[in-house]
Each structure stands twice: as structure tokens, then as C-alpha cells.
Amino acid sequence: MLGELIGEAAKRFGDAPAYVTAGGWTVTYADVDRLSDEVASGFQARGVRKGDVVALALPAIPEYPIAYLAAAKIGAITAGINPRLSAPERRSVLEVASPRLVVATEDLATEDLASERAEVITPGISVETIFAGLCSSEPPKLVADDPATPVVIVFTSGTTGTPKGALFCNRQLTAITSIDVGDRWGGGGRTLVGTAMAHLGFMTKFPGNVRQGGCAWLTPRWRATEALEFTAANRLTSVAGIPTQVALMLQVPEFDGYDLSSVKAIVVGGGPATPALVEEARRRFDAALMVRYSCTEAAIGIGTRLDDPPEDALVSVGRPLPGVSLALLDDSDRPVALGEVGAVCLRSAAVMSGYWHDEPTTKATFTDDGFVRTGDLGWLDDAGRLHLAGRSKEMYVRGGYNVYPMEVEGVLAEHPAVTAVAVVARPDDVMGEVGVAFVVPRGDGPSLAALRSFGADRLAAYKLPEDIRMVEALPLTSMDKVDRKALAALLSS
Fold first, then answer.
1. CATH assignment of the domain containing 457
2. Taking a C-beta distance cutoff of 8 angstroms, is the pair 484, 425 a contact?
3. What is the largest CA-CA distance in the chain?
4. Which residue from 25, 111, 179, 468 lies 20 to 30 Å from 383 (Cα-Cα)?
5. Is 36 inside a domain boundary?
6. β strands within 38-126, DSSP E
7. For position 68, which CATH number holds?
8. Domain residues for 457?
9. Is residue 370 a part of any domain in this protein?
10. Taking residues 207-229, what's their average pLDDT?
11. Over the stretch 4-46, which tens digit does the pLDDT of each residue have?
12. CA distances (Å), origin 375, targets 93, 94, 160, 366, 384
């Protein structure tokens, strides 16, 4: 699939830029097709065959998509290794992936990589130097496309416990592309890759991005000020990222001095966006905003559209995308009533084939009728919109009442003295558990009394936090989500 797509894209888009690096050099669609052929041949010379895994421990540089395409052309499977993982975490992911070959930059190559399966590269500074030493001029032995051929492993963990690798084949990538862009070619915009390429978004939406023929600016490490500079200087047409990234951009003191008139759309996914953030982002970017919700295992799920009522993105994560079924289930896998909180489950042609080399966990992740358990809780309103209530493992019980931190955070985040907030539970001798609000303050920040008073009109008293801690920033995991375990650890320190 990918091999045929990039070949057609090279014919259609040719010398149009596919990637531009922070250093300013450009890789065209024709370059990407040619170089991925040469790297594919180099992989085969190193013993990589159909069904083998090629692990990529690379930052956001052109070598990543080129190596991904090269592996796909010869029927190999790409496993992305998040560069933000520590060395022990990278080793843990590699143990699960069991790759035939590892391609890594020197700073990300773990010391225990066997030399015969490791290819350590220096990122190129021009098309002529890219993948120096890894390419081969011999034509690669290409593998015919098959819907059942495995293409990519996306890891969902690596920071705690045994990492899990969600496997996607050609058929899932085809389904995702069909939902995202249909069968059209062209129409792609100019955007900045703001998350690791090992993330779900890049790995599974790559075919759709190729079809659209847009241009992506790459930076090895995302920073808010640089993202704004890139956006203004290069007239980028969209801003995409997790809510934390959008919030950090809005906090840059010089934000209003940048010319962001080229931005026509903001796409927020990978975590919940509070109503306050949605409103501020729309107003200050002067652009429409879409929210997206899914999980790694489901690949694609729920969202809003640019032409939906503005309220939808404020109060919900939208409705199921075309071809996606949503179920909200109780502990016995029975549907809950409208308006009641249940476990969010998704089903479509895009869901993973299973976890790599982990059949028992795969079985537990699916319901009997093929829905993927996302691990999130939510409820459906009478307009068919999904409202998230938090992760099932994050819910706590105060005095016999269930409290969902995401619901509380969505209200408290609107306080004018709050930049960001996360609520975690701590043990309590009387109530069992009570909520503690970790607040990144705006100015001096609110007092506990002021925060409780602010939320009292919209939240039951048992949902309001009973302690407050001021922090400079909320800790994040390698997947750019709030690290609630780190916050819980602060409570006991």
C-alpha cells in the first residue's frame, strides 16, 4: 500500500516539498520515493525480509518516514521507539518488538544493542548525505501489497510495566485513510510535526498524508516559542497537537505579536481539551477548531468537524466518525442508559489486529462482539455527543460517591487564576479518598476556598478538591499526557 502510494505521489507531486527540517533543507516527494528505494535495498542487504521488524529510534527527522516507507516496500514491519523514553524504557520496548534491525541516532542507541542488528546514523543536512552508508544502489526486491500484511507496531506504553505494541496491517491503514481523506489526491496544507513520529497519529495516518501531498516542517524537539516562529515564518495553515502544546503556545508572552493569519484550523487530540482552552485557542488564533478522540488500539474514533456547532468542541469530543461504532458499557459489558457513565468502547475496520506477541492481553482488550476497550469512561448526551469522564483507573470514591477527575478539571480550568489543573486522589481516614488539585497558577493562583467556590455552582460538593498544591508545570509522560502517578508521588513525599 505505502510503496504504491509514494510512487504515485512522486508522479503527482514530484519536486513539491514533503518535509522541511529545522535546519532549512527540503526533501521532495520524488526524493522520498527514490531514497526509500535505496534504503529498502540497504535493509535487504542487511538481512531484513518480509515479516521482520525494523525498529526506528529516531527523532522527527526525514530519515524516519523514509525508513518507514523502505520497510513497507519490502514487507517489513516498522516499530517506532519514542525518543522521549529513557534508555531502560527503550530497551524494554525493543525486547517486545524483537527487531531484525534497529536504526537509531547516536544519542538514542542503547548500549545493549547488538552490533549486527544496529545501524547508528547521523541525521543528514542535505538530500545527498541522508542515510549515508545505509543506502544501496541495487534495486530492492519489492513485495506485493496484501491487506493482511503487517505494516506497523505502535507502542502504547514503555514508561511503566511491560510495553504493549498495537499491530496494524495494510487493511487498517486503508480504512484509516478512507475515513480521513477518502480516495482524493492533493489538498494537503502546511503543518508542523509537533509530536514524536512514533505516535499513533503519524504512524497510522501516514498514507493519508502522502495522498494529500502537503508539506510538514520537522523539529527534533518541540518548543512552544519555536512552534509559533515556524508557524508565522512559513505561513503554516494548521496547528495540530495535544491540548498541552496548544496551551503552552498561548502562554508565550509574545503570542499576539506573531502573524498567524495563515492558520485556518486547529486540531486537538491525544487528550482532553477544557472549554476554557478551546475558547481561548479559537479567539486568539482566530481559527476554527476540531477535537479528536481515540486510543492507540482503536486508531480512529470520535471527533468534531469544522462546520459543527461551536458548542460541540466546548462540551464534548464530538460524535463517532464515519464507519466507527461507539458503545458505553457497564462492568458486565451491557450498554448503559443514555446519560449514564460507562466504559468507552470503539469498533471499526481501523482497530488493531492485536498486540504484538501478546494474545492474552489482546483477548482481554476486545469485547466478544469486537469492540476495543479504550480504558476511558464517558457518557452520551441526547445530541449523540460523547462526554469524557476520565480514565477508569483514575476514578476515585469519596464517601461512597464516584468522582471523575476530568469532569472536575474541566470546570476548575476556567478559573481566571488557573493556567492548568490536574486532580488526583489521596487516602482519607473518614471519606476513603479525597481530591487534591495540582494547579499551575496564573499570577498568584487561587486559594483552595476560591477554587471550591468557583466550582460550587456546577459541581456537587463531594466532587470539589479538599487540598491544593501549586506547581510550576504538570509533569508529562513520554506520550505527552499528564503523569498522574508522578503527582500522586508528590503527595507522599
1. 3.30.300.30
2. no
3. 73
4. 179
5. yes
6. 53-57, 77-80, 101-105, 118-121
7. 3.40.50.12780
8. 398-492
9. yes
10. 93
11. 999 999 999 999 999 998 888 899 999 999 999 999 999 999 9
12. 21, 25, 16, 11, 20
